[in-house]
């Protein structure tokens, strides 16, 4: 459920008309709903209500906007970060370091020092060499780093290949069958407090079976590690719950279904459980608002050319991802059309042969379920400025990231002396 609805024939977000935002800020623009964020956090938390003090660490990569993070911080969420920049963003937004988990395969020594200085809750290590580097960094600072190894359980998540992370050929984690040796080696390294196990098999999962298979493996590993003398106190079960992009497809499992499965599988685990939801919190809380530039007749169907492009919303060109596209003021007429952006790439395509609202030049359209992996993946290809972002709360709204002026793109380049006049 989200808080984007039609009132008197026009879409609004909570109590704010989308047309008003477009007129004030211009398009394209990302628009986020506070009420939807609050609801999704509540639903996810309710799904885990039977657990004892779980740590819910929002996956910052899904949406790192400071206002979004500050909203989630006030709701009590922690953060899962994958870079020093995300760590600093989370802390600046009010998320305590004691609720931050640092994941990712390529942590640098500098990022490790930064995280140790802040006193984060846990490092999720993804290789033995990473454990050795962190040991050296922690020992040099006279600190002990709380760590877990991310395990690669070789489980097919059944999602898009580019967002599958738990198969043996993926770059993430250490192989399941090498885990006992990796933990034994880490126990002898100075500066490490080996406290947990972590797993994350992919994103946009629409079936609980792969998650359950991975969690069963984690449970068996925890038993084996504790039998080998390791004091395992945490288990990070990652994230990955899918959200409904296409209303014609079956609904993904709900947080309640997920929580019931987790409680059943982990009921005897003597650990604190941790979770890294991202998309399921912010996906439906945001839309990309765009204006139609013109409609061009194609060989088989018209091309609806909008002012948003692949640099603003990369998911369709990167993953062939499906986003519902709705007219802000639908006439009731529908037709088959192709929706494309202005960037000079054939891949700048949002939908082909899509049954959708009939629109014409200057109409507004909303790309739904764009709150996750939207603005955060945007770039400036074709010298297009980054997309602004707006946060709405009830009848109030604010720009929470400005659209940079085009001049800023030009002034960011430096012409060397030998080319200057």
Automatic annotation (TrEMBL):
Residues 30-371 form the Orn/DAP/Arg decarboxylase 2 C-terminal domain. Residues 49-282 form the Orn/DAP/Arg decarboxylase 2 N-terminal domain. The lineage of its organism: Bacteria, Pseudomonadati, Pseudomonadota, Alphaproteobacteria, Sphingomonadales. This is Diaminopimelate decarboxylase. InterPro entries: Ala_racemase/Decarboxylase_C, DAP_deCOOHase_LysA, De-COase2_C, De-COase2_N, De-COase2_pyr-phos_BS, Orn/DAP/Arg_de-COase, PLP-binding_barrel. The modification N6-(pyridoxal phosphate)lysine is found at residue 61. Its EC number is 4.1.1.20. It holds the Pfam family Orn_DAP_Arg_deC. The active site is at 344 (proton donor). The keyword Amino-acid biosynthesis applies. One of its GO terms (molecular function) is pyridoxal phosphate binding. It comes from Sphingobium lactosutens DS20. Substrate binds at residues 279, 315, 319, 345, 373. It is an enzyme of class 4 (lyase). GO terms for biological process: lysine biosynthetic process via diaminopimelate. Pyridoxal 5'-phosphate binds at residues 240, 276-279, 373. Belongs to the Orn/Lys/Arg decarboxylase class-II family. LysA subfamily. Homodimer.
